[in-house]
Amino acid sequence: MLLDWGDPTLVEIVSIFWFNGNQRKSRFLIEVSADGQNWEHAYSGTSSGALLGWEDYLLNREHCLRFLRILWYGNDYATQGSKNSIVEIEAWGYERVAEPCVSE
Predict the structure, then answer these.
(1) Could you give the CA distance from residue 104 to residue 95 in angstroms, rounded to a whole number?
(2) I need a labelling partner for 3 at 20 to 30 A (CA). Which of 12, 22, 34, 57 fits?
């Protein structure tokens, strides 16, 4: 899944609403990029498998990015081990007043 903000945006938390999030644990990786060519690892982990709702993931640091992608590696549900489904995504941080977010 690829998200494009169109302009540099400051992000430090990604919230994911997993389909059947209370029935299976999904394994995934979040990568970020300023240009869509060079990607940086920002988070890897597994969803809780306990919530039918939003789960928040704190990235390894705040990122000034244009693109964010989520790569998934299946889940622990016996009959659907290769599937991951996302209902909705939110990505947010905070607005800098002193200096704007500028990708290098």
Answers:
(1) 18
(2) 22
